[in-house]
Structures are given as structure tokens and as C-alpha cells.
Amino acid sequence: MGKTNTDPMTNLTCLIIDDEQMARDLLLAYANTIPQLTVIACCRSTRDAKQYLQQQPIDLLLLDIQMPQQTGIELLQELQPAEQPLIIFTTAYSHFAIKGFELQVLDYLLKPILLERFEQAIQKAITAKETQQKAAQFDANMEQEEAFLLVHSEHKHHKIRLQDIIYIESLKEYVRYHTTTGRIMEHNTMKKLESELPSKDFLRIHRSYIVAIAAVKSYENGSLILHSGQTLPLGKTYKKEVVEQLFG
Description:
The chain has helices at residues 21-31, 46-55, 72-78, 97-102, 115-146, 190-196, 236-247, and strands at residues 12-17, 37-43, 60-63, 86-91, 107-110, 148-153, 156-161, 165-171, 174-179, 182-187, 202-206, 209-212, 216-220, 223-226, 231-233. By secondary structure, it is an alpha/beta fold.
């Protein structure tokens, strides 16, 4: 219904929820003037809206308050904090403003809603979404930055960041870590390492090799080619699962 934008940092998916047809039509017309806003559906009740909320993540609700069967406030009280989209109330009643503040809604639009005021509220939502995304990316970067293995080698303890590991090689009772900063060996087993390393980042490809998924470039002649140019053998018992996981 709405227009889309190629910039994922500012694109918002939206549900319009209002029991009045004229109100839904006006909000949709306003929304279609904003490239960053994609209206998924116009819902006449909270029951209709719940169907969409259960199917996919929604960034923003343009939510009326006074509706038959269930009010907008009652809908918000049902949602878990982790599930709750950004909320902009659209209502003819100013006395709900305090309740909106308590529910931490983003904005409060009083009907009749002017386009300029609508645009201000949507810009506030775009800014809030960008802030959420930046915070999530920061947390992800910190988690990746801090993840490491503590390796004992040559009477010293070494911290090896997971993001620096290219692959790990088994040498009987020892393993050798091949990293972006060099190689280091310790007394350990592949079985133990396989259980400790995050499966979303590392994959056992051979009885003698574990590889960082991000390090793999391609598959050719029964071997994996890494971005570094190195070639690792792909064990027969691992081949099917590895190829499916890495290359679909």
C-alpha cells in the first residue's frame, strides 16, 4: 500500500488501526506521501491487527484508542515489551494523553490530524527506529569483539578473539589455530572445541578441520576455498551437511 525505500536504516513497516473508514483512508493517504513508510495493512479492529502482528515484525502502529470490542490501550497492555512496536496514538480524545505517556507511546495525534503534524510524528518514529538499530548493532559488535578463547600454549595463556580465527587444525593430541594474526598450538581436542564454539560462526568440515563460516569463499572439487586463498579438504561424512549449510 505504502511506498518503500531502499535505505534499510530508515524504512518503517506500519499498521493503521482505526474502526472508522474515513480515518483509515486519511492516514493511508498521508502515509503514501512518505517514502520511508510502508503500510502493511489498514485494520478496523485490534483483532485484525493481531493477525499481522503474529505473522511478521511491525515497526510502527498508528493506533486509535476508542474502538469497539477492544481499545488501543488494551491491545498495548497485552503485548510483551520485546514485541511492542513503536506506537503513535491517533485519537479524538485528549484525556488519554497521560495514559499514553505511561505506556511510553512515541507520539499522540489528535483528530482532525493535519499532514504537517503527521509528518513530524513519522519523522520521530524514523529517528527512534534508527536509534534502536544503532544500539542493536553496537551490542552485536561488542559481543563479537569480546568473544574469545583462552588458549594455553608454551606455558602462557593467550586470548584469541573468535572473529580472528580462520580455521582450526587437528594434530593428534593438539590443535592449531590459524588466525588473522598468526598460528598458535595447544593441547586440546576437536570434539571439545566443536562443542564450545558457536555453531552459527564455526563448522566442522573434516575430522581434522573446523572452519570459520565467514572465512569460506567457495566450494570446488571436494574442497573449501577460503577468502585467504587457502584450500581445506571436505570430509565425506561432513560434505552433504556442510554444502547445504554454506551454499544452500
